[in-house]
């Protein structure tokens, strides 16, 4: 009997308990530790407390006491109710995860049915340690996206309500499903002197793009957002229907400066000494682009010459600066291209030595145009005031020098002439005032001396007329009669004092030192708005206008990721919500 008791105790100690060891490594036989849960017990040669612990905490372990040889610690542990619910996501956490999934789908333009992917569910279960987690249904996600859209739209409405001046840009886009949309973006300077740019709508267009229909669409968008009385300018490309539509709107028209530069490049390249050279370049690039085998042979030559593996670039007539990108990449891989073609059988007409020499000259001509296009295409900073200085820079670099070959001189002359003609059709008055109100360019060195004084006179006239809010463009024929009427008012003492007050305000502003080119004009106005109250209101109005319609182009690039082959049948309202919501969330 005594032997059985000792064996039982021995089995308990060896199977489910062990003696405690002191810090020095000595075994303390007065204390034992449960190997299952690690709890410590006092041991005085009695197994009662140890059996009670097994029976109450580890039921499976207690049943195995009578058969210690076959039992192991790992398969004796019982999963308790607390352990099974330990990794169960709480309701609030599950709701937050659902909101995050909906926001991710909206912001990154993912299809809503992605929540039905088995792989996504497995990933969430591993990340949350909840093996029972199930992603939200498509209906739940769509409902959350609609709620998120309403919330973000209200935020944008509040932003527009707090500003006095709103500039719009608009353009048309045709989706892969052959549906046409009008994209409209808004640009404002808020009360903190921060430039805000965001989408207003991607509106389905079912009528032909006649000028009347286009003008009506812009007015509909302005009315829907409640900003018709605040709109100052509408930016469009130079398409005839858009220009005609802008004339019918009660807003100033701002033609896209980037389109003007690129159009001038296209026209001049087609009628210059570079046309035949570019045609040969396109065929050489196409020889490699259309054949994986030819491309691989080119890559081998690039590696052999210590160059990086890279594809050649084909220019596209509708892709800005693509001709420059094509010749830049071709020049960088000139030797590899020549060597590869020399080892192949082909019917290409190779570039002559003189034509290879033309490419660096064309590259030098187009690089300033690319710089100006990218500079004017930004929407996170003030760009309208940069148009005239940028065009002045282009006219300067396109001056003909004595060292220029005949074909370069012909291109420069044609480009300068074409750019000047297109620039004359722009809203020059608005651009001049914007440059004057930008502390970087207020010296107006991009204009002649006579034009500079006319700009300051126009600003003084606006101050006298109280033009601090959105006004409508006035025909040019009315400028001269207005001047004559002002002469009749010079005898009034009150008017004279008012004019002196506005004149002094302009003198104070002109006396301010200009800031550096890398500094932000809005930060300057934020710090000096108190000293130039009326001029700051005009700066907020004129500097908010973008120089290009690139924001709409970016909006259409975003729309192209929403309306794709597998989602070509999206509801038109959902297209608008998904594109706008993605734009708003990425802005944050």
UniProtKB/TrEMBL annotation:
Subcellular location: Nucleus
InterPro entries: HATC_C_dom, RNaseH-like_sf, Znf_BED, ZnF_BED_domain_contain, Znf_C2H2_sf
Domain annotation BED-type: ranges: 27-58
GO BP term, example: post-embryonic development
UniProt keyword list: DNA-binding, Metal-binding, Nucleus, Transcription, Transcription regulation, Zinc, Zinc-finger
Pfam families: Dimer_Tnp_hAT, zf-BED
Domain HAT C-terminal dimerisation: 506-585
A cellular component annotation (GO) from this entry: nucleus
MF-aspect GO terms: DNA binding; protein dimerization activity; zinc ion binding
Superkingdom of origin: Eukaryota
Main localization (coarse): nucleus
Protein's name according to its UniProt entry: Zinc finger BED domain-containing protein 1-like
């Amino acid at each position: 009997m005594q032997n059985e008791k000792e064996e039982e105790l021995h089995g308990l100690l060896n199977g489910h308990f062990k003696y405690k060891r002191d810090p020095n490594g000595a075994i303390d036989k007065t204390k034992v530790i449960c190997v299952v849960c690690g709890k410590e017990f006092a041991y005085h040669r009695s197994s009662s407390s140890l059996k009670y612990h097994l029976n109450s905490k580890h039921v499976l372990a207690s049943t195995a006491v009578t058969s210690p040889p076959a039992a192991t610690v790992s398969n004796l542990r019982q999963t308790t109710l607390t352990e099974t619910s330990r990794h169960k996501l709480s309701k609030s956490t599950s709701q937050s995860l659902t909101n995050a999934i909906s926001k991710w789908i909206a912001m990154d333009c993912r299809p809503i049915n992605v929540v039905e992917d088995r792989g996504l569910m497995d990933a969430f279960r591993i990340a949350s340690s909840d093996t029972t987690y199930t992603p939200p249904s498509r209906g739940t996600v769509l409902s959350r996206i609609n709620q998120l859209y309403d919330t973000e739209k209200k935020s944008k409405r509040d932003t527009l309500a707090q500003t006095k001046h709103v500039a719009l840009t608009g353009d048309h886009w045709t989706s892969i499903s052959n549906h046409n949309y009008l994209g409209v973006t808004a640009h404002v300077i808020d009360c903190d002197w921060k430039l805000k740019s965001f989408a207003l709508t991607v509106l389905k267009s079912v009528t032909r793009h006649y000028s009347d229909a286009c003008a009506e669409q812009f007015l509909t968008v302005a009315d829907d957002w409640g900003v018709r009385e605040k709109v100052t300018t509408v930016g469009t490309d130079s398409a005839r229907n858009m220009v005609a539509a802008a004339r019918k709107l009660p807003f100033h028209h701002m033609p896209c400066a980037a389109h003007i530069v690129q159009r001038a490049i296209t026209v001049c390249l087609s009628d210059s000494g570079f046309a035949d050279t570019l045609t040969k370049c396109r065929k050489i690039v196409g020889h490699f682009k259309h054949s994986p085998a030819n491309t691989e042979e080119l890559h081998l030559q690039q590696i052999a010459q210590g160059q990086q593996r890279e594809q050649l670039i084909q220019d596209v007539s509708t892709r800005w600066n693509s001709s420059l990108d094509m010749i830049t990449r071709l020049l960088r891989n000139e030797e590899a291209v020549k060597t590869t073609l020399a080892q192949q059988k082909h019917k290409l007409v190779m570039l002559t030595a003189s034509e290879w020499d033309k490419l660096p000259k064309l590259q030098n001509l187009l690089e300033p145009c690319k710089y100006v296009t990218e500079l004017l295409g930004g929407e996170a900073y003030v760009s309208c005031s940069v148009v005239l200085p940028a065009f002045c820079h282009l006219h300067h670099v396109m001056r003909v020098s004595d060292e220029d070959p005949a074909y370069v001189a012909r291109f420069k002359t044609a480009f300068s002439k074409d750019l000047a003609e297109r620039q004359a059709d722009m809203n020059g008055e608005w651009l001049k005032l914007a440059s004057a109100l930008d502390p970087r360019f207020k010296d107006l060195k991009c204009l002649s001396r006579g034009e500079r004084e006319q700009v300051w006179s126009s600003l003084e006239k606006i101050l006298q007329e109280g033009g601090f809010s959105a006004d409508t463009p006035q025909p040019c024929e009315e400028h001269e009669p207005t001047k004559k009427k002002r002469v009749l008012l010079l005898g009034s003492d009150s008017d004279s004092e008012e004019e002196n007050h506005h004149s002094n305000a302009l003198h104070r502003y002109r006396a301010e030192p200009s800031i550096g080119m890398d500094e932000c004009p809005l930060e300057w106005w934020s710090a000096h708005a108190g000293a130039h109250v009326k001029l700051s209101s005009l700066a907020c109005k004129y500097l908010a206008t973008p120089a290009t319609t690139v924001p709409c182009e970016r909006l259409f690039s975003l729309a192209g990721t929403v309306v794709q082959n597998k989602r070509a049948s999206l509801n038109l309202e959902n297209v608008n919500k998904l594109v706008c919501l993605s734009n708003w969330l990425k802005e944050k």
